[in-house]
Design goal:
Helix content is 81%, strand content 0%. The protein is mainly α and 203 residues long. Helix 2 runs antiparallel to helix 5 and helix 4 packs antiparallel against helix 8.
Length: 203
């Protein structure tokens, strides 16, 4: 059991440490609170746990269908572009007037997970192997898989938000606006990538 849980931790961290849409919104919102990462991870978990259960009960093949993947790419790409543009437009109000972004952290976690086709496909391709391996240890193995994976998510995103919040006094003004611009274009970049990937599947 211990080697299996260690492999879950390593594989989970290899996924969560990669910068992506969820990382971008966590960084951008961490000027408000050091606990933003926990809220984003909670939204992520609201999508991830049901997805893990679907795969556990054999419904993972649903996401292998090309029409489903195309829909994920196009819808997810469009929403990420919209979020990125909204973040870019709000950068001045947020930095200079301490206003908030137009969506809360839990919603951001839900959206950047549910509409991220690479997150879904990661679970279908790699996560499903972990789930099958957990079956060797029964329901307890599956429950521990969920627990260890979520601890990796919550731990990393909390670390990111705590570090950004703690260091914000060092990069106020133009530097903070620069960070917002970088995060917004990261979202737009992923959105365009998803859109292009969906269009490629259609053609």
């Amino acid at each position: 059991m211990v080697p299996f849980l260690a492999s879950v931790a390593v594989i989970s961290l290899s996924g969560v440490l990669m910068p992506g849409p969820m990382f971008a919104v966590t960084v951008a919102r961490s000027y408000k609170s050091r606990f933003v990462g926990i809220k984003v991870a909670l939204g992520h978990a609201l999508v991830e746990i049901p997805l893990m259960l679907l795969i556990y009960f054999g419904f993972g093949r649903f996401y292998d269908q090309e029409p489903v993947q195309i829909a994920l790419y196009l819808v997810g790409g469009g929403v990420l572009v919209w979020m990125g543009i909204g973040m870019f437009r709000a950068r001045g109000r947020v930095v200079e007037k301490s206003q908030d972004l137009p969506y809360n952290s839990v919603v951001a976690g839900v959206v950047t997970s549910a509409l991220n086709p690479f997150f879904i496909l990661w679970w279908v391709a790699i996560g499903s192997m972990l789930i099958m391996k957990s079956l060797d240890f029964g329901v307890i193995g599956f429950a521990l898989l969920i627990t260890v994976h979520l601890l990796c998510d919550f731990g990393w995103l909390f670390f990111v938000s705590a570090m950004v919040y703690r260091a914000q006094s060092l990069w106020k003004g133009k530097l903070q606006q620069g960070l917002f611009i970088a995060c917004s274009w990261l979202l737009v970049g992923f959105g365009v990538w998803f859109l292009v990937s969906g269009i490629t599947l259609i053609t």
